[in-house]
Write a structure and sequence with these properties.
about 250 residues; alpha/beta; seven-stranded parallel beta sheet; about 15% strand; globular
């Protein structure tokens, strides 16, 4: 084995595994969020708080976890009372990772997309994310590995291919990408990293509902494992980045 002695030093100074991590995940009742939660829970050292609206789905999530380390909180981050989340955070004391995955997608032509759809999309995809970040931030300041990961979309990245029917969704994800860059700058002195994963099409129930008959090239399980790995490890390498995660170009 090459550089055996120096490699041991690197392992001590820059550990690859950090032991127990407290992770908050929104939108974990199905699809990418559900699979991300299971991937995170495969490490017995992690403790995961999953926030979503569907209590029945989250009960199934807990039952499907490899270890008994998923805690669920039934809450609508866009409209609901956040007191129950606050109480759980007080019990935890510290949060290491926040993954903002909750979102809605409505496929409709711009001329047929009412203001109510725009308001719903922004309320969930942006305002809900802002609410949970503001709530969780005070609990991240004592973490040495603090990382906020926003789950965006290729549709929200300037210069990429756009698709008819996704004006509200893409605009909300563009706002999320910009928020990521702003927060990374604002929070860097606190040691909190903020990045955005701009996902391409993933074969989830939400995508199939919006685009019947379309099959995406990537499954939610694959993407969930990727997000879990990125969220818990890659704060060491990047901050304020909008990272395309797609097999297509641009």
């Amino acid at each position: 084995m090459l550089c055996e002695g120096s490699c041991n030093v690197l392992k001590l100074n820059i550990p690859y595994f950090y032991g127990r991590m407290n992770i908050v995940l929104t939108g974990g009742s199905r699809g990418i969020g559900y699979e991300t939660a299971l991937a995170l829970a495969s490490d017995a050292g992690n403790r995961i708080m999953v926030i979503a609206r569907n209590a029945e789905a989250m009960q199934a999530l807990q039952q499907g976890a490899l270890h008994n380390n998923i805690e669920t909180v039934v809450c609508d981050i866009a409209n609901g009372d956040m007191a129950v989340v606050q109480q759980r955070l007080n019990e935890w004391g510290t949060v290491d990772v926040l993954i903002n995955n909750a979102g809605v997608l409505k496929n409709a032509a711009f001329t047929e997309t009412g203001v109510d759809v725009w308001e719903l999309t922004m309320r969930v995809n942006i305002f809900g994310t802002v609410r949970i970040i503001q709530l969780v931030l005070p609990y991240m300041t004592d973490s040495t590995v603090a990382h906020i990961v926003n789950i965006g979309s290729m549709g929200g990245v300037q210069g990429t291919s756009k698709f008819p029917g996704l004006s509200a969704y893409s605009a909300s994800k563009a706002a999320l990408a910009n928020l990521t860059e702003c927060l990374a700058e604002e929070l860097k002195d606190k040691g909190i990293k903020v990045n955005c994963l701009a996902l391409g099409a993933v074969n989830t129930e939400m995508l199939r509902e919006a685009f019947p008959g379309y099959t995406a090239p990537v499954g939610p399980g694959e993407m969930g494992r990727f997000i879990a790995e990125f969220a818990t490890k890659n704060h060491r390498f990047m901050n304020g980045k909008i990272i395309p995660v797609s097999v297509s170009t641009p």
